[in-house]
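Title: Comparing notes on inverse folding

I've been comparing how different people in this forum approach sequence design from structure. To keep things fair, I'm posting one structure and asking everyone to reply with a full sequence. Here's the target:
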């Protein structure tokens, strides 16, 4: 029997109001929206599948006109609801989201001030809005988290960002490495460790410490692969345990994947294609095709995956070591 609650990620839209240089959805005006009817159909299946946590992704979820109602519906079904946002619309929506039962909000912040973050995201005013939204949502009892994409352009800012987030009352922080279609080169790897090791070694009683693995690796082997091959740290061998606990739904194309970090929409006819969300019109979360997909990446993920996040890798290793993971650690 599966003892851990599962995480259900749903990409509820692909439109976005940010222009982030590393994102395929930058300034997307795509009109697809995951509907309330689809969510109502999905919720009882999610409960039956052992899902305890639901996270809305995008695009920018706060651009979805029914996002508050979707959060409310999930809360009413007993789910702990979460969403990830660039933060632009968060200050004006914080109160309604909290009233709907939102349990966690994740804001993307890549710089220690608007002078850098707004440039990286090519969106003036985004940093100030995001920080204001984080403070507002925290005051309303919602767990505030920040995800940071860190690379050669901004790693030196991370100590300052650590202090900014600590002062703002942020309680969770993910530092994950920048991933591009080309190698990401750090001219002086030793300087990355010199700057960032103290972030991870800080006293959690006084500073916010990132979750999961270090973005450049915890072991000499991981660091060698990261700096020489641009391979991000992944679940340690022999097995990836994330895939047993995660269902990622690409709403627009109606497909499921066993991890939010797997490349989506690749059509090579292999296990990386995931599984259809519906078979013969019937919604199935644990179909035989999906289970085969899960089984493949449970065994092959630690060998094949090249886009793992620090929290996913840390989650898998914690399960292997401890058998359980604290809520919201992924």
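Reply #1:
Here's my take.
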């Amino acid at each position: 029997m599966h003892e851990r609650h599962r995480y259900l990620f749903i990409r509820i839209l692909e439109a976005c109001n940010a222009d982030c240089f590393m994102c395929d959805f930058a300034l997307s005006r795509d009109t697809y929206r995951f509907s309330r009817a689809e969510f109502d159909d999905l919720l009882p299946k999610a409960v039956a599948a052992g899902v305890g946590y639901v996270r809305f992704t995008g695009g920018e979820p706060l651009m979805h006109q029914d996002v508050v109602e979707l959060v409310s519906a999930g809360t009413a079904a007993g789910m702990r609801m979460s969403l990830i946002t660039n933060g632009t619309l968060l200050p004006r929506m914080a109160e309604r989201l909290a009233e709907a039962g939102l349990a966690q909000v994740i804001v993307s912040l890549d710089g220690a001030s608007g002078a850098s973050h707004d440039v990286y995201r090519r969106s003036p005013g985004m940093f100030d809005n995001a920080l204001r939204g984080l403070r507002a949502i925290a005051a309303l009892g919602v767990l505030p988290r920040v995800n940071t994409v860190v690379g050669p352009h901004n790693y030196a800012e991370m100590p300052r960002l650590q202090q900014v987030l600590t002062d703002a009352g942020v309680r969770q922080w993910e530092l994950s490495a920048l991933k591009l279609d080309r190698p990401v080169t750090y001219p002086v790897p030793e300087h990355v460790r010199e700057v960032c090791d103290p972030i991870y070694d800080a006293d959690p009683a006084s500073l916010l410490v990132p979750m999961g693995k270090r973005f450049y690796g915890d072991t000499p082997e991981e660091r060698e692969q990261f700096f020489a091959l641009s391979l991000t740290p992944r679940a340690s061998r022999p097995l990836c345990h994330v895939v047993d606990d995660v269902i990622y739904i690409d709403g627009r194309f109606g497909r499921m994947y066993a991890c939010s970090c797997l490349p989506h929409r690749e059509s090579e006819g292999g296990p990386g294609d995931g599984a259809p969300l519906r078979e013969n019109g019937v919604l199935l979360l644990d179909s035989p095709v999906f289970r085969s997909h899960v089984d493949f990446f449970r065994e092959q993920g630690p060998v094949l995956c090249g886009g793992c996040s620090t929290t996913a890798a840390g989650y898998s290793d914690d399960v292997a070591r401890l058998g359980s993971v604290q809520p919201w650690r992924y």
